[in-house]
Amino acid sequence: MATAAILTSSHVLELAHPLPLDGGQSLAGVRISYETYGELNADKSNAILICHALTGDQHVASPHPITGKPGWWLRMVGPGKPIDTDRFFVICANVLGSCMGSTGPASAAADGQPYAMRFPVITIRDMVRGHVALLDALGIVTLHAVVGGSMGGMQALSLAANWPQRSRAVLVIASTARHSAQNIAFHEVGRQAIMADPKWQGGDYYRTGKGPEAGLAVARMAAHITYLSEEGMHEKFGRRLQNRTAKTFGFDADFQIESYLRHQGLSFTDRFDANSYLYITRAMDYFDLAEEHGGRLAAAFAGSSARFCLVSFDTDWLYPTAESRTIAHALNAAGAPVSFVELSAPFGHDSFLLDVPALDRVIGGFLGQ
């Protein structure tokens, strides 16, 4: 069906009480920006919460207000689609710490000035606390399902572990129960690129109107490499030159892959805040679901009555299949019903966002139960 058929509504929730954080602080005046699609039924039993990834936002199936591009999961969410808005009431909230309307480093603190680096360090569980507050405000006691890919999958797992009665089903795609040393290393390269940019100014760049765009672009370039697969990069770019017939013997973007990464980096700076990138990547690095529950991952799911579905991709080296298998084993040990599938796709980690018909069937089948 056409995109225009989706019933969409944008909202901002202002929390009446301070939000407690894992770091020991609490955050007052929290705003959560979110979108809904479809209609909530009378007994409020048809709600699905979609959790977005690191650089995602609440515009899951509506045009992005800055770039004008279609929603990041438009192929998955809508009337008659795997996440069917004719049947389900779909919610997607911009995470705490981000920059698309929810409270983050660019938001005004009590003194009226942007928080910048005064913003408290947050965790994935803190983000989910914001989601739970939103569900409470909407009067939704139990979700039909929570769905997330990548960092969104971390949020889905955190909800299942820490608020086990809030969702009847949990769908986790291309994700992990904890960040590995390699994951942390790539994030640290990105953070150092941002903080090494003179225009970062210790994070206090909002009043100048010009942030660390060069550093943020490099951070995005480094991260984007991890979202692709070697097979996919070879297929799409190989060693082909960019708009030239010979090498320049200089440092211009001779190769198509270089030009592509530069474009990805520069376009990212138009829609994302550098400080938000610092805070969200740190939250991901801190994520370790077993550590939160006495060192045993199975203990994290001991109180859950939900059914689970885990999906991985054979070319994803950021969160490889072994990560999903570890979660599946923990769920089995906890006695939770779980299905697990590795799908074949050439796109690497980004496969969950791209055209993989097998994923459509898995999602539609799981949510339709």
Structure characterization notes:
This protein has 369 residues and is α/β, with parallel strands linked by helices. It folds into two domains: 8-180 and 287-367, 3-Layer(aba) Sandwich (Rossmann fold); 183-281, Rna Polymerase Sigma Factor, Chain: A. Helices cover 34% and strands 15% of the residues. Strands 1-4-8-5-9-10-11-12 form an eight-stranded mixed beta sheet, with helices on both faces. Strands 2-3 form a two-stranded antiparallel sheet. β11 (307-313), α10 (321-333) and β12 (338-343) form a beta-alpha-beta unit.
Ends apart, CA distance between termini: 22 Å
* Number of E-state strands: 12
* CATH architect. name of the largest domain: 3-Layer(aba) Sandwich
Query: How would you state the average pLDDT, rounded?
Result: 95
Uncertain segments of ≥5 residues (pLDDT<50)?
none
Largest sheet geometry: 8 strands, mixed
Q: Output the CATH topology of the largest domain.
A: Rossmann fold
Task: Please identify the top-level CATH class of the largest domain.
Answer: Alpha Beta
Query: How big a fraction of the residues is strand?
Result: 5-15%
Name the helix and strand elements from N-terminus to C-terminus, one letter apiece.
Answer: EEEEEEEEHEHEHHHHHHHEHEH
Shape: globular
**Helix content class:** 25-40%
SS content category: alpha/beta
Give the strand order, joined by hyphens, for the main sheet.
1-4-8-5-9-10-11-12
Q: How many individual domains?
A: 2
Rounded Rg: 20 Å
